[in-house]
Amino acid sequence: MTRWVLAAGLAFLWAPILLMAVFAFSDARQPFVWGGFSWRWFAALAENERLLGAAGLSLLLAAGAATLASLAGGAIGWVLARHGAFRGRALFAILAAAPLVLPEVVTGLALLLLFVALQRLTGWPEGRGVMTLLLAHAALGAGYVAVVVQGRLAGMGLALEEAAADLGASPAMVFRSVTLPLLAPSLVAGWGLAFLLSFDDVVLAGFTGGPGATTLPLLLFSQLRMGPTPEAHALAVVWLVVAGLGLSLWGWLGQRR
Amino acid sequence: MIRAAAVAWLILLVAAPLLVVFAIAFAIPDPGLPPFRLPIENGRWVAGNEAWRVLTGDGFYLTALGRSLVVSGGTAAICLGLAYPMALGILRAAPRWRPMLLALVVLPMSAGFVLRMAAWMGLLRDSGPINRALLALGLTDAPVWLLYSDAGLMLGMVHSYLPFALLPLLAALAARDRAPEEASADLGAGPWTVFRTVTLPASAGAAVAAALLVFIPAAGEFVIPEILGSPGSLLVGRAIWQEFSVTRDWPLAAAASTALLAVLLPPLLWWQRLR
């Protein structure tokens, strides 16, 4: 029985995506109508400078936000796993996990109002834009990185680090030559997760992005209100191929390790 | 020092924003920029309770909040109902298939959220493949109203949130002890009895946590109803967005967010405890 539900569930997850991918190669202007094989939507995509510009901005933003999120989330995960009991730990844990579950509308509005209040009090940030969006995405991503890093630290125990210290390594050396290499895979995974979250986000971008920071999902969302376009389907194919290659590379690296 | 940095980050980017929302909920709407002013005049607090009066006054926001909880509760229940058998199915598959099956669950998530919604839009349209198939099979005479309906909304919600229920449940079920299940099967229990009397009670905590991980964020969902739901359907996430961007009544948006947060606090703390 479970096998059949699994098959049906996977079909449900994949059917819209596969259909979209097939019809991206259709010549018809109407979505999901077959009008003969054509590359025309991919060609249109390559010439759509607004879309490409938004995609470029989204890639840079996601990379920056993921890097910042890895640093902050790594520190948060470290404190949760290694600092034992300290005053306010329960509250610390709740705040660390909040970005994972809070509705994005609440997070988005909250960060926007914070930025507005900060600007009033200190003059910074000057309006909304890429900078405020970067911080918003980093705040979201850090929650996910913290969970991944905390799980890894709790799983790997202290034995190897203690052994290195017993053999005379200084704390900095232990961290650099034992802890960090053991932690690296989860930091990379957390970075990837934070990257995807940022690259896929509509709501936080809508609240904290401002006019100068139209990301790819935001642009697609505003166009989608007018109805789906075959160009968007072509973009989905490109996106899926890149994601599939990334995941394969990930699996291959994981097997070699 | 690491702890100080982590605490500072969480205070600045998680705690402070939520406190600011609470404070702005008492501010007074103003046509300026930003579109509100603090309820302080000549150094005295002149309570701006306008937003709260609007919020509790007419039935609009209470209906929206109630409907949002019904939609997100339904989404969580359907996701959990699908995630259980799917997770067990993945774990029962031959070991060499498992990474492949896991990739099949994860990869749709990386296919772009807005683009997946675009696909559903095309599929559910009056002239889309689903309606064309129904018409061709003679199951209906006129296209069924799927796009911009509650059915379309639920399809999109389950499609987006299913992996969030599936992945934690999969992790919990993978780590479980199989011996009690084998023992109960050896003693003659059928597969359904084994699931109901052994697997389900042992994993109930993880299942509730997985359902809450869908329920809590879905309660504020705004993009999926905007693209697939019916234009008139009242949901609190949509109302907050509209007060923010269209009506520009930021204190009201903040008050509605605070109310949503207050309703979600018990499930949030429950999830935190189960985790």
Give an overview of the whole structure.
With 257 residues, chain A is mainly alpha-helical. Chain A folds into two domains: 48-226, MetI-like (MetI-like fold, Orthogonal Bundle); 230-257. In chain A, 79% of the residues lie in helices and 0% in strands. Chain A has helices at residues 2-23, 40-47, 49-82, 89-101, 104-122, 130-156, 159-166, 171-199, 203-208, 216-224, 230-256. In chain A, helix 4 (89-101) packs across helix 6, helix 6 packs across helix 8 (171-199) and helix 7 runs antiparallel to helix 8. Chain A starts with a helix and ends with a helix. The model of chain A has no long low-confidence stretch (mean pLDDT 89). Chain B is an all-alpha fold and 275 residues long. Chain B has one domain: MetI-like (MetI-like fold, Orthogonal Bundle). Helix content of chain B is 71%, strand content 3%. Chain B contains twelve helices and four strands. Chain B has helices at 2-24, 50-57, 59-92, 98-106, 113-124, 129-136, 150-174, 179-186, 191-218, 223-228, 236-245, 250-274, and strands at residues 28-29, 36-37, 40-41, 44-45. Chain B has a two-stranded antiparallel ribbon with strand order 1-2. A two-stranded antiparallel ribbon of chain B has the order 3-4. The longest helix of chain B is centred in the first third of the chain and has 34 residues, at 59-92. Chain B is globular and about 80 Å long. The model of chain B has no long low-confidence stretch (mean pLDDT 89). At the A-B interface, helix 1, helix 3, helix 4, helix 5 and helix 6 of A face helix 1, helix 3, helix 4, helix 5 and helix 7 of B.
